[in-house]
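Renewal narrative, Specific Aim 1. Our central claim is that a sequence can be written position by position from structural information alone. The example that follows is taken directly from our test logs and has not been curated for this report. It begins with the structure tokens describing the chain, in the order in which they were read.
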């Protein structure tokens, strides 16, 4: 098994925690920077990090601000723009151009950062995220993240909540892994993120909130899909090799959203993972890692 070490980076006013896997081959073929989704932690990338290391890649997974072991934002700023700024700061400290691998929220930050700075990453992998996001799926995520403000009495209770949200994922044999995503305080288990993360801060989130309010007012589903223009603008600027990995059962990225991304980034590659939902890497890590490894294997040699 490849060795893993704890690392840290300076974000924009916060300390960012991470894990690093050394390449099993000694000399790295490149660096993959793994960015998790909202409400997750760097530990969601553990199996992916180990697999990449076996393929000869240095893999680094970080906790986003306000998540896991990274510091909470003192001003409560969890906008995509600020997370993209954290990402640029991390890459600057790496001193080399990584492949940016971002799931959901992490993919939004990677897309925005790469669109603003074409030299930031040497390739981009978007895991079940596109500029077009489906409202029903987004509302489901926000409902899940808001559903237990008082925490859980036990790990079993937390596991049941996860299963209700993601019923097609197999329950783990042991609940010990859940402790990486929960904090134990005053006899109860709380999710490992800053509650202030749920505050709507940036333009994309405001659009989502406005659409949800509109849907409630008219009592129907006829409101168009949200189209956050900053994400569209960023996608139009992407020039590096790009891969979109969608979970076929995703309620966040539709087939229409995937097709739209391929119009925005004509050179992008696209794979659809059967049996996986929004949490593609966790739902079917074997298939996800295979597609990721094939994509990385086709990249030109790193220039530095």
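The sequence written for that structure reads:
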């Amino acid at each position: 098994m490849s060795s893993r070490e704890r690392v840290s980076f300076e974000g924009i006013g916060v300390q960012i925690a991470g894990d690093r896997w050394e390449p099993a081959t000694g000399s790295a073929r490149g660096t993959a920077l793994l960015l998790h989704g909202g409400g997750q932690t760097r530990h969601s990338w553990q199996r992916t990090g180990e697999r990449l290391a076996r393929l000869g890649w240095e893999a680094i997974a970080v906790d986003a601000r306000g998540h896991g072991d990274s510091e909470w934002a003192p001003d409560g700023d969890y906008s995509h723009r600020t997370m993209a700024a954290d990402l640029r700061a991390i890459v600057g400290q790496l001193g080399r151009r990584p492949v940016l691998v971002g799931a959901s929220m992490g993919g939004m930050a990677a897309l925005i950062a790469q669109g603003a700075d074409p030299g930031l990453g040497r390739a981009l992998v978007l895991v079940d995220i596109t500029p077009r996001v489906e409202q029903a799926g987004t509302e489901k995520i926000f409902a899940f993240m808001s559903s237990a403000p008082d925490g859980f009495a036990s790990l079993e209770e937390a596991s049941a909540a996860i299963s209700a949200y993601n019923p097609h994922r197999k329950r783990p044999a042991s609940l010990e892994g859940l402790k990486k995503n929960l904090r134990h305080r005053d006899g109860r288990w709380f999710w490992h993120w800053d509650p202030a993360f749920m505050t709507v801060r940036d333009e994309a989130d405001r659009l989502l909130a406005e659409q949800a309010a509109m849907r409630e007012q008219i009592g129907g589903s006829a409101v168009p899909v949200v189209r956050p223009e900053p994400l569209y603008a960023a996608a139009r600027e992407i020039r590096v090799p790009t891969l979109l990995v969608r979970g076929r059962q995703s309620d966040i990225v539709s087939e229409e959203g995937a097709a739209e991304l391929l119009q925005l980034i004509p050179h992008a590659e696209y794979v659809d993972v059967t049996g996986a939902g929004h949490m593609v890497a966790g739902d079917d890590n074997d298939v996800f890692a295979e597609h990721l490894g094939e994509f990385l294997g086709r990249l030109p040699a790193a220039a530095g």
